[in-house]
Amino acid sequence: MTESNSTQLQPMPTDWQRALAVVAHPDDLEYGCSAAMAAWIDEGREIAYVLATRGEAGIDTVAPAECGPLREREQRASAAAVGVSVVEFLDHRDGTIEYGVSLRRDIAAAIRRHRPELVITLNHHTTWDGGVWNTPDHVAVGHATLDAAADAGNRWIFPELTEQGLQPWNGVRWVAVANSKNPTHAVPAEPGLERAVRSLLEHRAYIEALTDEDPETYARRFLTESTRELSARFGGQPAVVFELFNR
């Protein structure tokens, strides 16, 4: 991200108790917003994670049958590092997630189960800031999450969920998109930054396949640099940034 846009970032809303984070892969939240998760957990809020895949196609040198369970274990440990104990997987196929009714239904079901006021997802735009192309998985899950936040409250969309005992939930007030190229709001990063580093570091197998840099050095450098990129738009303090949509 760049600091060319001088618009100041607003603080994230604080009048909520339950949040649900929905992303495509293990590590998406750790690269995006785990410092915010740690700070929110410290404040007594409830947060659950839902992942569309187990990240089984994410390490070139590890076959999917081995990689999926490995990355699931890393994700559960990573969530625990910031205080999140509920981690669910929807078992869509890594790398080929398709936006559509099936994905919307699965996410709407998760929203009905957890009944959050705040839903969090990852950048749904086709590019990252600077024009770097986003992956189809991120785009599909982000778009589906924005749609499912409304689907979850409509009893006539996916009535089979009601038949399964998942009553409509129209209590989602916001959807916050982490790592968006169009951020509007932010959370101070420093209170949760050390736990965010530990959380990203739990994805050790993934990091070791990604870079020759020492994993802890890599995790600390990445999160320190990324949370400082838009600090000028948030009172000079490191920030976890979101594009916030009201519901």
UniProtKB/TrEMBL annotation:
Enzyme class: hydrolase
The EC number(s) this enzyme carries: 3.5.1.-
Highest taxon above the source species: Bacteria
UniProt KW keywords: Hydrolase, Zinc
NADP is among the record's keywords: no
GO molecular function: hydrolase activity
Protein name: PIG-L deacetylase family protein
Lineage: Bacteria, Bacillati, Actinomycetota, Actinomycetes, Kitasatosporales
